[in-house]
Amino acid sequence: MSNRFEDKVVIITGAGSGLGQASALQVAKEGAKLSLVDLNNEGLEKTKKLILESVPNADLLLITADVSKEEDVKNYVKQTVDKFGKIDGFFNNAGIEGKQNLTEDYGSDEFSKVVSINLNGVFYGMKYVLEIMKNQGFGSIVNTASVGGIRGVGNQSGYAASKHGVVGLTRNSGIEYGQFGVSIKAIAPGAIMTPMVEGSLKQMNPDNWEEVGKQFVEPNPMKRFGKPEEVGYLVAFLLSDQANFINATVIPIDGGQSYKY
Ligand code: NAD
């Protein structure tokens, strides 16, 4: 097994489910000490159990926090540095889809909620982690955007605005911090089968969501959903020293979806 993360410290937000959980497992298998952050404490406990099953001596810090609250973000960064002394990698990943609706019906409160988690949360994370990484002179940040951050999807005003914002932040800050040895990239996942996507399919058709899922991936060049562990492999690479020269850019992981439609 690769040991790219031996003696490395990684923070992962949204670590209690889906892409965050799969990425946490992957970097833990490669030796990372981890700060696992999520709003949902039960999810964090599940991730911890999953990691300890394959890495019994994993060094884990579990932090319940709401990424849309700046004080919570400041606190998870401080707790990580207090315990581990540094931050090598940061997977800035927590996010929600929000309700699907036409722009005129989307709702201002829903828009604010989605943007405050998906965009403000990512900004706060970068703000506090970058301060540490700049002083260290090293570090890698991977922000979770989406195919919805590089093209139009429809019925997702808040999601599209927030994920395009994540791409903008990534490009902007990558240019600022490259000179300090810190690289910042975003991933743009297509449809990966996680609880979030299951919820999205259920919004489209609660009674027959599995069938809706089959139709949904039909136009995808690979005709399937992605798997969380496939994103985990990409995130682990991007957080590792091997990917230091990949900076201020967005990497799609979508089976080719963003180029097809
Ligand atoms: P998920 O729902 O399985 O996991 C998201 C996790 O984030 C959950 O554990 C949830 O509790 C946590 N979370 C939500 N709001 C939070 C908050 N305010 N503070 C802290 N934690 C919070 O979803 P996922 O599919 O793993 O999504 C992870 C990220 O990937 C999101 O940013 C999502 O937009 C993005 N994404 C997912 C897909 C996909 O197909 N699954 C595609 C593109 C982008």
From TrEMBL:
<dbReference type="GO" id="GO:0008206">
    <property type="term" value="P:bile acid metabolic process"/>
</dbReference>
<keyword id="KW-0560">Oxidoreductase</keyword>
<dbReference type="InterPro" id="IPR036291">
    <property type="entry name" value="NAD(P)-bd_dom_sf"/>
</dbReference>
<dbReference type="GO" id="GO:0016491">
    <property type="term" value="F:oxidoreductase activity"/>
</dbReference>
<dbReference type="Pfam" id="PF13561">
    <property type="entry name" value="adh_short_C2"/>
</dbReference>
<comment type="similarity">
    <text>Belongs to the short-chain dehydrogenases/reductases (SDR) family.</text>
</comment>
<protein>
    <submittedName>
        <fullName>SDR family oxidoreductase</fullName>
    </submittedName>
</protein>
<dbReference type="InterPro" id="IPR002347">
    <property type="entry name" value="SDR_fam"/>
</dbReference>
